[in-house]
Design a protein that fits this description.
This protein is of the alpha+beta class. The protein contains 9 helices and 17 strands. The chain folds into 3 domains: 114 residues, Rossmann fold, CATH 3.40.50; 110 residues, D-amino Acid Aminotransferase, Chain A, domain 1 (2-Layer Sandwich), CATH 3.30.470; 64 residues, Dna Ligase, domain 1 (2-Layer Sandwich), CATH 3.30.1490. Helices cover 28% and strands 28% of the residues.
Length: 315
Amino acid sequence: MGLFVAVQMDPIELVNIDGDSTFVMGLAAQERGHRLFHYHTSRLTFRDGKVTARGHAMTLRRERGNHFSLGEPEVIDLAKADVVLMRQDPPFDMSYITATHILEHIHPKTLVVNDPVEVRNAPEKLFVAKFDGLMPPTLITSDKAEILAFRAEHKDIIVKPLYGNGGAGVFHITPNDENLGSLLEMFTQLYREPVIVQRYLPEVRQGDKRIILIDGEPVGAINRVPQAGEARSNMHAGGKPMRSELTRREREICTILGPELKQRGLIFVGIDVIGDYLTEINVTSPTGLQEIARFDGTRPEMKIWDAIETRLGRA
């Protein structure tokens, strides 16, 4: 029997069907006989111990301009779903965190992917710090004196918001740049959280590699090369995806991370590697499935469903 899969995501009419990972996960689910239900986090409700969602039965097609059909609006008890895919885009803010708290009430009887408790406990730039020897030199603080001392030591630095995403708010500060003070003032006005400061890695000019791990095992990678004159390599910021194989160091990083990710119920994870360094572990809404498929001729989304069905005893 097929699974009933509730997909917590952004509006389906806005997705890019040639790049969106949730879209191909949904197509793969349909191929395997699973039923889809779409809802947005703003329609997630907790009342008297019950978790419900207002949304629509959904059918997907790879047809540009006609890629989905929705049924009549209805409210479902998410405890009666087999799987909830938590796939709304970051930012990882209090709205995101609140959704994890609500979904915690139905997991693991209803399998939430990824585990909402572990998503909450693994913000992507902080989670890396749990693994010694993998990060570049890194500072997390609101203390301006500490930031200035870090810059004096490393000269060339990257400054970014601790809970940012998609390359937004990432600044490359060179040794002679006079804007650091103003930048920190701006960050203080925009964010209550500390900033993250890292030694600049010139290897980023050769690319920032996104590696997909499913149930702790690497299944593919793409290299994202920044545009000329741009410090950011994120595809949202114009980074160009290119075919890539894993290096020996990258396989070593995956071997270190894999058992921990699997134990935590982080089934679908994207990690970012620049040179020999791990910079982020994305557990919220990783991307890259379609790019890997185009370059490698594989379908990594099917391996996600293999892992989910195995956990549910349906393999």
